[in-house]
Amino acid sequence: MTSSLSEPWQICLEEAWAAYCAGSLPIGACVVDATGAILSRGRNRIEETQAEAPYACGNTLAHAELNALLALKVDRPTRHAAALYTTTEPCPLCLGAFYMSSVRTLYYAARESFAGSTNLLGTTPYLSRKPIRVYGPAEPILEALVTALAVEFELGDGIFPTSAVLQSWSETIPAGVMLGEQLYQNGELRRMKAESWTAMRVVAVLSEMLSI
Q1: Global model pTM greater than 0.90
Q2: To 10 degrees, what angle do helices 164-172 and 174-186 make?
Q3: Cα–Cα dist 103/85, whole Å
Q4: Could you tell me the strand order of the sheet in which 83-88 lies?
Q5: Which residues pair with 83 in a beta bridge?
Q6: Do you find a cis peptide bond into 90, omega within 30 degrees of 0?
Q7: CA-to-CA distance for 30 and 80, rounded, in angstroms?
Q8: 160 DSSP assignment
Q9: CA distance 167 to 180
Q10: For 35-79, how does the pLDDT look when each residue is reduced to its tens digit (9 = 90+)?
Q11: Tag placement on the chain: N or C end, fewer CB within 10 Å?
């Protein structure tokens, strides 16, 4: 899978892995211009206590998409032509930030059946005004991989397997949840973190596990 991933998805996964290694929920995002060049990038920093400007950290608002958008320093025409990429379907906070950012195209790698909120688009007069384009998961292995990272993290963070969140994910992306539970039980992801694996090395190994 690593050889077929476009640069924006590689950046998103690098940021997600960096978030995991820093003790935060493994979600990563980036913004690209009309040519595909990277304009900004961000990760979930909820559990981090320090971050360089303009990134948010240390609170429940420090989400990946929000941080990528906070770091976006371009004019309005460039924003209109830009696209936000994120590993996970945005929550209400990040969907709102995306809509208000002037970026008009959104790509996400994995559905988030519990908190994902792209369905809010078009539900109010304001959320119906802009010509927004949304592209959901195009690669099942990538979706399952992203979900597995989140499941392993949530289990390690004390979320019980019977929680509403994991139940919802199990119904939507069962392969990702199964791999995440396996990784939590065998400790492999924590070992990769301790050994300072690169994001792409992690992705390659997890992709092989999902391909079996």
Answers
A1: yes
A2: 120
A3: 11
A4: 38-43, 28-32, 83-88, 105-110, 133-135
A5: 32, 105
A6: no
A7: 15
A8: -
A9: 13
A10: 999 999 999 999 999 999 999 999 999 999 999 999 999 999 999
A11: C
